[in-house]
Each structure stands twice: as C-alpha cells, then as structure tokens.
Design brief:
Layout lengths: L2 E3 L2 E10 L2 E10 L4 E9 L21 E4 L23 E5 L4 E5 L23 H18 L3 E5 L5 H14 L4 E6 L12 H4 L9 E4 L10 H7 L6
Parallel strand pairs: 8-9, 9-10
Antiparallel strand pairs: 1-2, 2-3, 3-4, 5-6, 6-7
C-alpha cells in the first residue's frame, strides 16, 4: 500500500515472467473509480506476437453494453473494435440493472478531446490554469451571488475538475444541483460517441440529466431505454 486515507487508497504490485516484468500502480477513490497504470518492461530483447489486456466480467452482469461503437442495448455475442481517430471512442460500459463496469483505455499521450460537434477538430490541450479560473469563478459566484447550482451544456473538463466543482458547491450551498444536458452524439459529426458513456465518470457528482436533441425516444428499443435512460436516473 502506498496511501490509505479517507476516500482514497493507492497501491502498487509487480510480476515477472522470464524476461518480462509487469509493474502496476493503482488508485481507488470513494466514487468507485479505479485507475490502473501498467508498464511492461523486458530485461533483454524479447519477441512478442501480441500483448493484450483482459478485463474479466461475470456473464450474469454483462447483459447490456454501450460504447466503442455499440449504441446501447443488449451486449453483442461477439464484438471487434479498432482505434479510429475519427470516432470519439475510447471507453465502454458493460453491465446489467444492478451492476456494471465502465473501462477507459488511455496511453501516455492521452489528452481529453473536445466533444459534441467540435470533436472532429484537432484535440486541444487545455492548461490546468484554465480549470483553476473556472473553479475560482464558480466559488466567487456561489459566495457573492448565491447561485444554487449549475446547468452544464455538455462537459469539456474531466472527472477531477467535476469533483472540485461539486466540492465548491457543497461547501457553501448544501443541496445545490448540477444538471447536465447533452444531445445525441452517436453520429459521424460527433465521432459516434454515446452521451451516457462519454459522461459516465461524472455521474456520481450530478443530480439530473437532460438528454434531449436528436434522441428519438419513440423509436428506441426497450433495451436501449434501459441502458441510455433508466440506468441514469438517480
């Protein structure tokens, strides 16, 4: 164990097989998020045909899927996916009514891309100072104007910033609400991203969802309703 405190724990481990060594660093937080950093090193030149990451899931809780090109509904019996920069796809959710897992795949050069109809622009690097200005501005509004919540029209920042937003609101205005609105982004212009899967890491800090434009709720199937709508109600 590297760290164990209220709401957070981190640890590391390693394994060696012949000339290959796997190093794992992990951190788990109170909202159920676990981040793993995996490094594979070879002590000598070693030929490899393939390196794969297996994520074991029980069949009993793997009935539905969304993300990585799957719009929602029942999990396909077999599914193959490849990286494509034209598509905003690096994560998926697999689960059932009472349990599930979202996984996101990141490399060392990961930088959260823009979303909605800005996605096809070259991904931008936003300095940490931009997020600090946002948080400090929100803090001023809460204390001096008395706002009691936020209506966010799609999210460009990550889960860490959303945690800070929640903390600022709760520290001064207990009961403040955060509403998140999104349009249907499962189209070529937005990189075929599932709105629910795209923002799943933010859900522990939200109060209400407004999934509106381009969602045809009269046409989607019952399984789509379950993965895209019902499972997102709080």
């Amino acid at each position: 164990m590297l760290k164990q405190a209220e709401g957070i724990a981190s640890w590391e481990s390693q394994a060696t097989v012949q000339s290959l060594q796997l190093q794992v660093q992990a951190q788990m937080e109170f909202d159920g998020t676990i981040e793993f950093l995996l490094r594979i090193r070879a002590s000598r030149a070693t030929p490899l045909n393939d390196v794969s990451l297996e994520i074991p899931l029980s069949r009993e809780i793997s009935r539905y899927m969304m993300g990585m090109g799957v719009k929602g509904g029942f999990r396909p019996r077999e599914y193959r996916w490849k990286w494509d920069q034209k598509k905003n796809q690096d994560s998926a959710w697999v689960g059932d009514v009472n349990a599930g897992l979202q996984f996101t795949l990141k490399a060392d050069n990961y930088d959260r891309p823009l979303n909605t109809n800005f996605y096809l622009l070259k991904p931008l690097n936003l300095p940490p100072s931009w997020h600090n200005y946002y948080i400090e501005g929100l803090n001023w509004l809460v204390k001096n104007v008395g706002i009691d919540g936020l209506y966010i029209d799609d999210v460009a920042f990550d889960r860490t910033t959303m945690k800070r937003v929640r903390r600022v609101l709760d520290s001064t205005r207990p009961g403040a609400l955060i509403d998140l609105h999104s349009a249907n982004q499962f189209n070529v212009r937005d990189g075929f991203a599932n709105s629910a899967n795209l923002y799943l890491e933010h859900f522990p800090y939200l109060n209400r969802l407004w999934f509106g434009e381009y969602f045809d709720y009269n046409a989607i199937t019952n399984s789509d309703q379950l993965t895209l709508v019902a499972r997102n109600k709080r």
